[in-house]
Write a structure and sequence with these properties.
266 residues, 44% helix, alpha+beta
Length: 266
């Protein structure tokens, strides 16, 4: 009997030492109400369900024990909402409406969404160039002059985006944000490629970053494909390692792609 009591004490002690996470969510998107949300993580190049909950009257909650910090993605049933969430200790809050989404309340989530907010700002500035072109044409400005001016602005914004993403990954090589954003950057490619940005990142990478399963497989495959393209190996390109869902690549060369809101329509 004493042995049984002792065993329960040990189990209770171990459970109390384990880290836990708590995520409170709210949504003003009516089509989310009554749906089931999932937190999914990438494991062995496959998406796995980590946790799930129902949305009731615009509220939802995830909670559980955590053996290690993870980067998850939020899904509604099988539809990705393009919302990365760092699962770490703390009181995490998710807010979703028709125009924005935020995750806050823990150090890595705060850092991630500050980055996403700045990245979205640069994307909006890039999109505004098209409206600016139309306005300048209406004002009678010479088209060649417009193209020269806007090309300079587009190059400036692309460089800022490139630096923002590269610096963020470098600063977070040794936590989940570095590999996670690298996965977002490369997830839209048809197959692994070695862009100047990726080469720059890998030239600075720490051992921990290089040993991340996704990063390691991506870089290895990209090097093999480049060797084939250079005629050193006679073979066909392999498919890209499976990543978290990412949006279609934009037209700016070598710029990183970070998920934007993908919310159900009212």
């Amino acid at each position: 009997m004493n042995k049984i009591v002792y065993a329960f004490v040990i189990i209770a002690t171990l459970a109390s030492c384990a880290e836990s996470y708590s995520i409170q969510g709210s949504s003003s998107v009516s089509s989310l109400d009554g749906s089931k949300l999932y937190l999914k993580t990438v494991k062995d190049q496959e998406l796995k369900n980590m946790d799930s909950c129902d949305v009731v009257h615009g509220k939802f909650r995830f909670a559980g024990l955590l053996d290690t910090v993870k980067l998850a993605n939020l899904y509604m049933d099988d539809q990705p909402l393009m919302m990365p969430v760092v699962i770490e200790q703390g009181e995490i809050e998710i807010h979703i409406d028709n125009t924005s989404r935020t995750v806050s309340g823990s150090p890595l989530n705060d850092k991630l969404y500050q980055f996403i907010h700045r990245h979205d700002q640069l994307g909006n500035e890039m999109n505004e160039l098209g409206h600016k072109q139309s306005q300048m044409l209406l004002e009678g400005i010479d088209e060649a002059s417009i193209n020269r001016q806007l090309s300079i602005e587009a190059a400036r914004l692309a460089q800022q985006e490139d630096s923002l993403v590269t610096n963020f990954i470098v600063e977070n090589f040794d936590n989940v944000l570095g590999p996670g954003v690298f996965m977002m950057v490369t997830g839209g490619y048809q197959y692994p490629v070695l862009t100047p940005q990726i080469e720059d990142i890998m030239s600075k990478a720490t051992k921990k970053f290089k040993d991340d399963p996704y990063v390691k497989e991506y870089y290895k495959t990209a090097q093999e494909i480049q060797a084939r393209q250079n005629g050193l190996i006679d073979d066909q390109p392999q498919a890209a390692p499976q990543a978290a869902p990412a949006p279609e690549p934009q037209t700016v060369p070598d710029s990183a792609q970070v998920p934007a809101p993908n919310l159900p329509q009212e």
